[in-house]
Structure prediction request, 62 residues.
Amino acid sequence: MAVTISLALLFGFLLALLLRSKTLGAGSAFVAVMFGFYLASTGAADTVNQLMRAVADALNNV
Prediction:
């Protein structure tokens, strides 16, 4: 749970940074947020969570 909240904050920060630097437009940001929102409610959510958990574990072991 702590890793998920941290990753949500990290990705939110990166999204805000991209918007601020004009690298990502408001429409693209909306699409990215909605994609994440709807992805979380599909069967792929478990796979994405497992992948991110594996990445976090790998980074912990480095």
Q: What stands out?
A: The mean pLDDT is 83.
